[in-house]
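pls ignore typos typing on phone
oxa(dethia)-CoA + seq
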Amino acid sequence: MTARTLHTAGITGTGMSFPEKVLTNADLEKMVETNDEWIVERTGIKERRLCEPGVPASHHGTLAAREAMAMAGVEPEEIDLIVVPTVTPDMLFPSTACIIQKALGCTNAWGYDLSAACSAFLFALQTARAQIESGAVRKVLVIGTEVMSSIMDMTDRNTCILFGDGAGAVVVERLPEGQQGIVDHLHHVDGGGAEFLYMPAGGSLHPATAETVAQGMHYIHQEGREVYKRAVKGMTEVTIDIIERNEVPAEDVKLFVPHQANLRIIEAVQRRVGLVDEQVAVNIDRFGNTTSATIPSALHMHQTAGDLKPGDWIVLAAFGAGFTWGSTLLRWSVDA
Ligand code: UT7
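k done
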C-alpha cells in the first residue's frame, strides 16, 4: 500500500446560477388559497425562481460550477472529482455528476450524486474534504443543484410556497501546507424522521405508475410543524457543539450560513446560539428553499459582496429530510 499523507482542504471558489423566471407571492395568490402576508410572516419568503419546463438540474449546476472554477482559477481538466448533492437529479441514473462532467469538459474527473436532502451540501463537502485530506485527489467540485419545481404540487399550499430552483457550487482544493480550511464537521441521521418529509413514489418502493401519478405520490409531502421543531433543535445543537468543541467564541464567527428553509427557523437558531444579524446569511427572501443550493449560493453572495476575507471563521449548518442534520466549521480560503 502507498503511504498517505494528511493534507488540508479548503474552498477556493464559489458560484451560483438561478433561473430568470420569478414566482412572487402575488403570483401564488392566484394559484392557491394563500396571501403574501401569511407567506412572509410564516416563512420570510418573498419570491423564488423557477426553471422553465424541461430545464434539468444539470443546467444551472453546470453554470454555477463554471463560475466557481473561474473564481478558483481552475481549468476543467484539473478537476479530479465531482460530487452533486441533489434530490432532483436529471434522472435516477446516470448521475447528474456524469452529465455535468461532460458539459464542463472535466475529462479527468470521476464523480457521483449524494442523497441527503437539505443536508446534502454539507455531507458532500465532507466527502470532498476527506478525499483531499487522504491524498486521493486534489481538486473537487461540489455542486448543489435543484429543480424543486419538478417535485412540487402547485395545488398544495402547504409546500408550493416554500421551494425554489437554482444551484450553488464550490471548488474545494488541497491547500498549501500550514493553511487552514475546512476544520471540523458534525453530522447526524435519524431515520425515524422519514415519515415527516418525503417523496413517496418514483423509487423502488412505489415505482411510477398511472396510479402513483394520479395520487400525487411523486410530489413532496411534509408535516411542517414536526420538521420545524426538529430543525430548530437539531441546527442549534450542532452549531453550538461545533463551535464549543473547537473553542471558537460565537462573537468570533464572521458568518453563520444556515440552510434556508424558513426565516423563523434561522432566527430561532440565531437567538439560541447568540449571534447578531450581521453574522447570519439570509437569501431565503429572494430564492425560497432551494434544498442543496441554499448554503453554497449564500456563500457565493457574501464572497462577491466582499464580506469575507481569508482566515475568517465560518459556520455552516443544515437540517433536512431523513432526518439528516449537521454543521461544518471552516476558515475562509478564497483569495479572490
Ligand atoms: O428544508 C427541509 C426542512 N423543512 C423545513 O424546515 C420546513 C419546516 N416547517 C416550516 O417551515 C413551517 O412548518 C411551514 C412554513 C411549512 C408552515 O408554517 P406553520 O407556522 O408551521 O403553519 P402550519 O402548518 O401549522 O399551519 C398553520 C395554518 C393552518 O391553518 P389552521 O389549521 O390553523 O386553520 C394551515 O392550513 O396555516 C394554514 N396554511 C396556510 N395559510 C395560508 C398552511 N399553508 C398556508 C398557506 N397560506 N400557504
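The chain has two domains: 9-174, 182-331. The mean pLDDT is 97. more later
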